[in-house]
């Protein structure tokens, strides 16, 4: 089981937050706090796809460049990207220049529009899969779950790409569908409070 580690400021946090200087801010202010904003949800599922086979540190360091390259991940804008857009992005040194992942992001934007038309929002779709807190594994002990597998299966059926169960689970951790901060982490209670106050879509 993963445990907490005392950081330079004397506060206990999830051990992974010590891996890189920019992780602590991300860990304290973003990771695990519940999100219902479709743009943010779309950005995160795309960035998790780009992370596939890489480290999150690489993606986080390039996040602002990704936002510029993909119009701040505004879904309808990304959906209008074309072949010329892909070729241009493949020359962008600020992002991960992987044709398959770039094309998947554009494809997923189009599929996201279809999903929003059907469900009302991406948030409504994703939060439908929120697990019962009493039925989740201990924090940071697994990399997939029955919910992440179910979401992955449904998204793939709808034509989404680079949304495997592990990618989706990382998305669920980050977007607050579960509180995966370890016991003893100074942020765990803050996330729990945020989840208790959060209005599910």
UniProtKB/TrEMBL annotation:
This is DNA-3-methyladenine glycosylase I. InterPro entries: Adenine_glyco, DNA-3mA_glycosylase, DNA_glycosylase.
């Amino acid at each position: 089981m993963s445990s907490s580690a005392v950081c330079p400021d004397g506060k206990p946090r999830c051990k992974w937050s010590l891996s890189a200087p920019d992780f602590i801010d991300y860990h304290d202010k973003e990771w695990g706090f519940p999100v219902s904003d479709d743009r943010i949800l779309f950005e995160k599922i795309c960035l998790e796809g780009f992370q596939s086979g890489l480290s999150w540190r690489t993606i986080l360091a390039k996040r602002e460049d990704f936002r510029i390259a993909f119009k701040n991940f505004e879904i309808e804008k990304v959906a209008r990207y074309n072949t010329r857009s892909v070729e241009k992005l493949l020359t962008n040194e600020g992002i991960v220049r992987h044709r398959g992942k770039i094309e998947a992001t554009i494809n997923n934007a189009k599929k996201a529009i279809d999903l929003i038309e059907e469900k009302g929002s991406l948030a409504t779709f994703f939060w439908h899969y929120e697990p019962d807190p009493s039925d989740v594994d201990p924090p940071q002990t697994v990399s997939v779950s029955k919910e992440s597998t179910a979401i992955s299966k449904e998204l793939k059926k709808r034509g989404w790409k680079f949304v495997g169960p592990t990618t989706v689970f990382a998305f669920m951790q980050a977007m607050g569908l579960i509180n995966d901060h370890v016991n003893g982490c100074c942020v765990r209670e803050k996330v729990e409070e945020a989840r208790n106050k959060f209005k599910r879509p």
